[in-house]
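Hello forum,

I keep getting stuck at the same step: I have a sequence, I want structure tokens, and every attempt I make locally crashes halfway through. Rather than fight my setup again tonight, could one of you with a working pipeline run this one for me? It's a single chain of 218 residues.
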Amino acid sequence: MVEIPTSQPTRICLVRHGETEWNAARRIQGQIDIGLNEIGMRQAEAAGRWLRGAGIAAVYGSDLKRAWATAQAIGRALGLVPVAVPEMRERRYGVFEGLTYDEAKAKYPAGYAAFEGRNANYDFENGESLLAMFERVTGKLQEIAAGHPGQNVVVVLHGGVLDIINRFVRGNSLETPRDFLIPNAGLNWIAAVDGRWHIETWAETEHLEAGALDELPS
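Reply #2:
Ran it on my machine without issues. Output:
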């Protein structure tokens, strides 16, 4: 028997922040507070223009500079004041932060193997494990959804956070290899109705003139 929804869906547009110089250099940012580059700012503004007709009721954003500047650009386009959500910050990559992926692999080969193999308990020597990140991110996501029943909202966040949310919505393991893209300033629509989550669209970049960089292995 097919279940008929009893309420209107809450739709959330998850927007990865625009490009930074460290994205372009393939350098691991984590919670180091790097701002947008010129390309990233244009991407943020393009996302805002694209979302003008989407009936957005609220804008939330990680308080790290690259996400917050993206949220502010979207908010200006929509006439909304963003709300900061520190719970949507990028993963804390501990000793990897500030290194390129190649440098991290060379300097911490065992740790990099755990990272690349998606060991859910590995925390980068006092960084953050996937399990810990899953708890903080999904808890806040559900709180935002509960606060906007039947509405459309935007949440600006990071590549690692999108990786977690995609798995949460699809019911996939944290250890499963990634099979989806996470482009800078990409639009990712998810929806919740009667406690059930699903993905509507993922990694939309039609609003960007020249495409976008993808998040690296995560």
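Helices lie at 21-24, 38-50, 65-78, 101-107, 109-116, 130-147, 159-170. If your local run keeps crashing, start a new thread with the error log.
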